[in-house]
Amino acid sequence: MPIEILMPALSPTMEEGNLSKWLKNEGDKVVAGDVIAEIETDKATMEVEAVDEGTLAKIVVPAGTEGVKVNAVIAVLAVDGEDVDKAGEGIGEEAPAKAEAAPAPAPAAAKSEAAAPVAAAPKTEVAADPDIPAGTELVSTTVREALRDAMAEEMRRDGDVFVMGEEVAEYQGAYKITQGLLQEFGPRRVVDTPITEHGFAGVGVGAAMAGLKPIVEFMTFNFAMQAIDQIINSAAKTLYMSGGQMGAPIVFRGPNGAAARVAAQHSQCYAAWYSHIPGLKVVMPYTAADAKGLLKAAIRDPNPVIFLENEILYGQSFDVPKLDDFVLPIGKARIHKKGKDVTIVSFGIGMTYAVKAEAELRGMGIDAEIIDLRSIRPLDFDTIIASVKKTNRLVVVEEGFPQSSVGDHIANQVSQRAFDFLDAPVITIAGKDVPMPYAANLEKLALPNVGEVVEAVKAVTYRG
Amino acid sequence: MATAAKKAPAKSRSDKQSNLSAPKPADFTKEDELSAYRHMLLIRRFEEKAGQLYGMGFIGGFCHLYIGQEAVVTGMKMALIEGDQMITAYRDHGHMLAMDLSPRGVMAELTGRRGGLSKGKGGSMHMFSKEKHFYGGHGIVGAQVSLGTGLAFANRYRDNKNVSLTYFGDGAANQGQVYESFNMASLWKLPVIYIIENNRYAMGTSVSRSSAETDFSHRGASFKIPGIQVDGMDVRAVKSAADLATEWCRAGNGPLILEMQTYRYRGHSMSDPAKYRSKEEVQKMRSEHDPIEQVRARLLDKKWASEDELKAIDKEVRDIVADAAEFAQHDAEPDPSELWTDIVL
Asked: pLDDT (tens digit, 9 = 90+) per residue, A157-183?
């Protein structure tokens, strides 16, 4: 069978081009790799190389022809033993018409513009919190200690878990979260890195792809912007791009958001940023118990998990159940306080405003329900929707920037899924739309405050 | 091309850390030559076919061909032991074939079909195989260098004897994270071979227009990582450098840089007309330094193979490629339900 040489496409968007020059004549022998012709488009000139070996039996499209359609037959190659004179017979005379009629070999779906229904994302079920046996001792623990205990317990449990980051070992952690880990686990598993976020995030992801379970500590998530390419392009996307063969079981953790008086470059909440990315899980605990149970879950999770902590919360104490293995489900919100008049949704340090506002509101006779999201991705809409169906009012509180915030996303989903249950527009409270100022008074103004939450609740409950 | 073997050894720039001179090209047996010939030919024919399928509209997006650089992955692979890892950027089809990934799986991934190595969800630049220790296939220039360093970190953590082969180009060699990785690899004595495939052009920018230091074997100098310039068009030279480097890493000496002086015949990607270099330059490389022709000439010269025997290899390789192309054109597209799978476990 003679081989038809087709007009090639230079790019996925090219439909036709000019055949400017033939570099071989009819009757010439060609081997794979020989340049046989030049074609050009409005953008470029390219050489056409032979892919097969044989004799150029017939040139169907002469040099100088313009507007040759992609995949039209431009020449015929006789392979070894074929009659060169006969190889081109019957090809070419009707070639242009044939080219017109030739079906595009590209998959039909690529060109189809029909609005075929796209299957909805499958719903993932998230387990409820584990039952805490009656009589379990509750131990007052700081968030800092809870995080350290979670790492230590998981490192005892699994030799593949290690922690790396700046000052995590000998210095005992810039915020003392890794205190004592070097002494217990040694420098092989508690690794001080140079100040090189992009590099060590990539090293961590590579180690995770090879099957280890790294905990990468960022001294603050502000510095993780240097590493965000590795977090998103390498860690979050590899499982999908490999068709499920290879993922990155890794935890990126560290303080996130505003601390105090450290100004714009060190005061930013990344909850909304990372929540945008399929392939990541994003956790942002408020209490010490959640910090412990969720960090243990994050370390065991086979996916990349962004674990957002807060410097101001590190020293706050909460009751933590004294259990051998306290693990909480990622993706499940926690009803922090039951109520019936309004739903306040928050997470991380935002909860401090919600909790104080709730106490004030109680004094005014408003019974607010507080939901602590704990996980930003996956986000537990079921718990929010169920609450809104009961209270018919929703206020969301966070410290991050207002545009495209977590609250915006929740407001959008609630309006789509529970519109008929709303008695007032959803109010989202966020940080102000400004870089964080340094001056104490301005910083205070830039952050949300309890008064704003109280006023928002009064507005949605029409208690002006 | 000035080959390392013909050139005087690179001079030391530091008292403490000398660059190493390239070892003599390996003495290949008949079997070595035939094996190298077959492997390089498979890559060449596969890539030519991929170029053709791209031209026919079967392959979309970006497609970066490895034609001309075949000796690099082929020679490196000859020094590996089970468990050694390989990772590279987006000019990756040759690396995958060298690591024995299925030609059908690679080609069907290029055409975006369900039988592709990534079920059609990765494409030309993103393919992986845990089983064959191939870690991609990465589309972000330089990112694979930190990842490959992480693979070496895992080897060190597990205290095995495996080595991470981390490939990148002369263009990626100017990315910051490359040097962050060099620093950690040297500091922690990680078993990683940084293979810089210097094909002289970062897309359309020649090395001399993009790099202050164009001797890439010296790029580790600040981190005490020795480097070697290797004639990357001679598979025997690559093999002997690979032997030296793998032994160096397995002995616990830390990382090593191999600058492979090579050349790509085709444009950066399919849509690159390569106007930034002359036809004569390309033609000279093809006619005087072609990695496959070198082996072919030796095989004939030493009477280790006849024209007919080489033709038979050619036919065998063509059949593999034709089968892969046939499969890749007719395999079904992924099921629509695949849209939602493999996002999280």
From this structure: 999 999 999 999 999 999 999 999 999
| B94/B256 Cα distance (integer angstroms) | 22
Q: Considering Cα of B49, then B55, then B61, then B63, what sign does the dihedral take? A: positive
Q: Are B135 and B86 in contact (CB under 8 A)?
A: yes
pLDDT at A116: 64
Q: Is residue B117 part of a domain?
A: yes
How many CB atoms sit inside 10 A of residue A7's CB? Answer: 25
Residue with token string 């070097």: A182
CATH class of the domain at A334-460: alpha beta
Q: Where are the strands (E) in A171-230, listed by range?
A: 190-192, 213-217
The predicted pLDDT at position B4 comes to 42
The C-alpha atoms of residue A58 and residue A95 are separated, in whole angstroms, by 13
Residue A321 DSSP SS3: strand
Above 50 in pLDDT, residue B208?
yes
- Which of A1-10, A430-439, B326-335 is least confident? A1-10
Residue A91, pLDDT > 80, answer no
Q: Is the interface score ipTM higher than 0.90?
A: yes
The alpha carbon of residue B66 is apart from the nearest alpha carbon of chain A, in Å, by 13
Number of helical (H) and strand (E) elements in chain B, helices listed first: 11, 7
Sketch the domain layout of chain A as residue ranges: 3-101, 138-321, 334-460
Which CATH number does the domain housing residue B53 bear? 3.40.50.970
Tokens of A17: 């081009």
Known active-site residue A198: no
* H/E stretch holding B162: none
Q: Which helix (H) or strand (E) holds B42?
A: helix B30-55
Contacts of A136 (CB under 8 A, 6+ apart): A321, A322, A323
Strands (E), A366-438: 368-372, 375-377, 394-397, 427-429
Total count of domains within chain B: 1
User: Which residue of A30, A161, A209 to mutate against B (max B Cβ within 10 Å)?
Assistant: A209
Encoding tokens for residue A213? 């379970």
* Nearest residue to B25 via CA among B178, B214, B232, B226: B232
DSSP E strands, chain B:
85-87, 164-169, 192-198, 201-202, 205-206, 227-231, 256-261
The whole-angstrom separation of Cα B229 and Cα B2 is 10
Task: Judge whether A104 is closer than 8 Å to chain B, CB to CB.
Answer: yes
Residue B71's alpha-carbon distances to A216, B269, B293, in angstroms, are 38, 20, 11
Tokens of B146: 């930190």
The two beta strands, B201-202 and A251-255, are: unpaired
Query: For A33-66, what is each residue's pLDDT tens digit?
Result: 788 888 887 777 778 888 788 899 999 999 999 9
Residue B50: how many other CB atoms lie within 10 Å: 29
CATH number of A3-101: 2.40.160.20, 3.30.565.10, 2.40.50.100, 2.30.42.10? 2.40.50.100
Q: Are A147 and A285 in contact (CB under 8 A)?
A: no
CATH topology assigned to domain A138-321 = Rossmann fold (3.40.50)
Q: With a cut of 60, say whether residue A106 has pLDDT above it.
A: no
Q: ∠ CA(B211), CA(A225), CA(B156), 5° rounding?
A: 75
Contacts of A279 in chain B (CB under 8 A): 343-344
Q: Cβ(A342)–Cβ(A369) under 8 Å? A: yes
Residues forming a β-bridge with B196: B168, B259
Report d(CA B100, CA B86) in Å as an integer.
Answer: 12
Answer yes or no: same fold for A138-321 and A334-460: yes
Q: Is B334 inside any structural domain?
A: no
* Closest alpha carbon within chain B to A204: B150
Interface touch B127/A199, C-beta < 8 Å? no
| Nearest chain B Cα distance for residue A164, angstroms | 12
* Mutation for A interface: B48, B344, B345, most A CBs within 10 A: B344
Backbone angles phi, psi at A159, to 5 degrees: -65, -15
